Amino acid sequence: MLDAFTPDELAAIRLSLRVAFWATLGSLPLGIGVAWLLARGRFPGKVLLDGLVHMPLVLPPVVTGYVLLLLFGRNGPLGKLLGEVGIVLAFDWKGAALACAVMGFPLLVRAVRLGLEAVDQGLEEAAATLGAAPPLVFLTVTLPLMLPGIVAGAILCFAKALGEFGATITFVSNIPGRTQTLPSALYSYTQVPGGDAGALRLTIVAAVLAVAALVASEMLARRVRRRVEGRDG
Amino acid sequence: MAEGLSVSLRHRQGDFTVEADFRAGPGVTALFGRSGAGKTTLLRAVAGLLRPQQGRITLGGRVFVDTGTGAWLPPHRRRVGYVFQDARLFPHLTVRQNLAYGRWFAGRGGATTVPFDDIVGMLGIVPLLGRRPGGLSGGERQRVAIGRALLAGAEVLLLDEPLASLDAARRAEILPYLERLRDGLDLPILHVSHSLAEVVRLATALVLVEQGRVVASGPLAAMLARPDLAALFGRFGTATLLEGTVEGHDPAWELTRVATPAGPLLLPRLDRPVGAAVRLRVLARDVLLSTRPPRDLSARNVLPGMVTALLPGTGAEMEASLDMAGQPLTASLTRLAAAELGLAPGQPVWAVVKAVAVVDGGTGLD
């Protein structure tokens, strides 16, 4: 079945999955932290943080990609710093993962925050009276109970990362085998004569991946919800 | 532990001020008052879930909070067993894991813990161990919550109306377990309640809370006998508690003889063995007085005693304190009756007890 795809197409599919996976996994800890700050924290500048997190949602993706290029490009202030320890993001799949993570971040934080706000703080009080120090209350009660929100956020982030196009192509370009993700490959096909068959093949792949992610998430979410609601079986 | 719990605090929330000063030793100390009187605020302060603006709370030799010195022990280091009104079991854990939760921390902290099997057996929750809280009934949940608090090595048990959310049948199911805890464990239990029936049945001491203030506190029997507090007890009025023992049954007449410090009393047949303890309540308005041994009365419970004090009441009513062979008993009567009988302290009288309520055991909650 894989024969139906060209090597570049296969590389693009593999790269997209890899980028989406790392974008999601990498932004989860930070996303949970930021969601906690926004839901529970009381500090000056909270509105600012909220706005900053949501920026990629309202900015044109090209702008986000360009800002990333300015910051993390070879000559950007952060790019230089990372370069010194041997990490190069520009024109590399890791850069694509960063772009996708930034674009998926607001979706992730929103879902995790909703999950956290649904946690009964009375249960956290109960845990404290039972001898659990605050970090352990978080690990043993809050975190497991906000799992539905975390799962939902991770899936949204993953789906967003699979489809991300504007910021990615602006930041890391569209190099087949290196930074060409599935959407970029599809875009390339639409730019050349006779690319219709390839574009169609990739469209089908994108649809299959999206449906598979949805089904998997629904199954996972159902299992987690049953656990959190404390039902038997 | 002998010093028990000592609470003294002042805390303002909006335009509501909670001000309290009371002590609680081993046994059940009931915090009694209307809903919204500030009872839960007091429990939360003891547990450390609320930081009082002013005050000092100690348990034994341990200082929980002292705003004078700035001392503050966070809730997780207080070893306080808090049983919330809504149980608050962890839904993502099984009953067994819920019970083990606090125990794990207690074990790490080096606190002495009570044997798991003892507590689980005492509360009758063995069959529930493998289940999740979502499927438990209200009564089962509260029993698990009590077990969880005890297994965490609690040195004081805080019960925040654990029965309030339950129907009469479930309440009757839990009460015997609470009685067993009271009698079987040597730790102070603070029991928040607005049900006098519950208080009369369980408590050894009573703290009366009204609009954020502790208006009186003391041993239960003494508190119930205080005529100045009668209004707070609602429709019951002043009452006397008698701790009796079943002396024998009379099957022919369907009666049970109960020995009390005030003298023997006949009650409609009780379903209890000879020798069993029984807590009785005699309302002041159910006691008639006679200056001579009464004859030809239908009442069978007539006890000799002596007037110790006459207490002026409001309106036509007043109360007489009696000494029945060493046991105080309160009778209510009209001022007119007292004047016409010429009652005075030191005078021998006969108390006719019209009605006696059994206030412990069974489902005797009214």
From TrEMBL, chain A:
A Pfam family this chain is assigned to: BPD_transp_1
CDD domains listed in its UniProt record: TM_PBP2 (cd06261)
Subcellular location: Cell inner membrane; Cell membrane
GO molecular function: molybdate ion transmembrane transporter activity
Keyword annotations of the record: Cell inner membrane, Cell membrane, Membrane, Molybdenum, Transmembrane, Transmembrane helix, Transport
Domain ABC transmembrane type-1, chain residue ranges per copy: 13-221
Protein role: Part of the binding-protein-dependent transport system for molybdenum; probably responsible for the translocation of the substrate across the membrane.
Family to which the UniProt record says this protein belongs: Belongs to the binding-protein-dependent transport system permease family. CysTW subfamily.
Full protein name: Molybdenum transport system permease
Automatic annotation (TrEMBL), chain B:
InterPro entries: AAA+_ATPase, ABC_transporter-like_ATP-bd, ABC_transporter-like_CS, Mo/tungstate-bd_C_term_dom, ModC_ABC_ATP-bd, Molybdenum_import_ModC, Mop_domain, P-loop_NTPase
Record has Cell inner membrane as a keyword: yes
Residue stretches making up the ABC transporter domain: 2-236
Entry-linked SUPFAM superfamilies: MOP-like, P-loop containing nucleoside triphosphate hydrolases
Pfam families per record: ABC_tran (PF00005), TOBE (PF03459)
Keyword Translocase: yes
GO CC, alphabetical: membrane
Domain Mop, chain residue ranges per copy: 296-362
Transmembrane segments: none
Keywords: ATP-binding, Cell inner membrane, Cell membrane, Membrane, Molybdenum, Nucleotide-binding, Translocase, Transport
GO MF, one annotated term: ATP binding
Protein name as it appears in the record: Molybdenum ABC transporter ATP-binding protein
Organism: Aerophototrophica crusticola
Taxonomic placement: Bacteria, Pseudomonadati, Pseudomonadota, Alphaproteobacteria, Rhodospirillales
